[in-house]
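Hey Z.,

So I finally got round to the nicotinamide-adenine-dinucleotide thing we talked about over coffee. Here's the setup:
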Amino acid sequence: MILLTGATGYIGSHTWLELLQAGQRVIGIDNFINSSPKVLARLEKLSGKKLEFLQGDVCDPVFLESVFQSFPIKGVVHFASLKAVGESYSNPLLYYENNISGLIALLQVMQKHSCHHFVFSSSACVYGDPDVSPVKEDADLKPENPYGQTKLMSEQILRDLEKSDSKWRVAYLRYFNPIGAHESGMIGEDPNGIPNNLSPLVARVAAGRMEELKVYGNDWETPDGTGVRDYIHVVDLARGHVKAVEHLLSGKPSLTVNLGTGVGYSVMDVIRAYEKVIGRPIPYRVTDRRPGDVALYYADPSLARDLLGWCAERNLEQMCADSWRWQSQNPMGYES
Ligand code: NAD
Ligand code: UD1
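And the result:
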């Protein structure tokens, strides 16, 4: 059985479905700090299975102990963390407490129950502003914000743990920019409050919930002057987790891999792809650069292909089409 923490969140919910479809038994946990309990009914409908879920906090060792006592957990996929970069600057202690204490509490309970397989949600933000793209896994690690620091520190904690006991097997998955939604339009990204990331903002402008998109600068050193990123469909990302779980459970060694497509798209590319999907223009205005932003980065995903046999399959148009299906079928997210 696989324990999914942060199971009702954006990436967690898509991974839950893919794990069930791959025949894994899953127990999900979440405290709903950034997700809705309504995800659960949607996942039951999509999977045709009764879900196993417990509400609780990964920072709470008593809760975690009860989960491990109740279920025969062989491996953990750890999504539960806070992820808003801006908030991590204004409230760093909250980020260090939630993301680091949660990880430590979880690892302690796992150790006690002799469960040593761990898939960790790391992030391309551990590379900060990479010197070259495509970015390989051995690039310098220099996160630029407290959120990114929590990801690098988590990696360090896990690497020290591996050194202390050879039974540990860890998959460090460094995601690039997940966007899109399940093709059914039934689950998708539903951030609390005003989104910060490009894709949910484009979706809201397309839906008329916002007047225009702000394009943060068109004077970057990129082909069209707008920022370039490696957008990856959330279902491709979720399948990368299934591969990582299968890899670890089959006794193979720990690995650190980028999960991206290897292709960089600019903000204008995303706007144009979205316009093609919805068949009308997306209003936008070029503004100043966003503090802390970088011009361009995209992954070298070849190691994930070699070690996991995993490749992203969906292109930008599919990412935008699926994002739009989710947005138009659920104009107010899960509260629709
Ligand atoms: P999300 O906020 O949608 O999901 C995280 C889930 O964890 C939420 O459901 C939240 O309620 C839960 N959670 C947070 N703290 C918790 C706690 N203490 N106890 C129990 N549950 C808790 O975020 P996501 O986009 O699905 O991201 C999942 C993971 O991937 C996170 O670790 C994030 O840092 C990482 N990541 C995300 C991105 C991205 O762009 N979405 C990129 C790189 C890495
Ligand atoms: C942001 C975070 C990063 C995190 C990632 C995924 C910052 C500085 N970085 O990265 O740490 O890992 O999200 O959660 O917040 N853009 C606009 N207008 C908008 C929003 C974005 O032009 O309204 C542009 C940005 O300048 C960037 C691109 O769109 O060029 C993508 O932005 P975003 O989705 O926020 O992702 P990242 O900047 O890669």
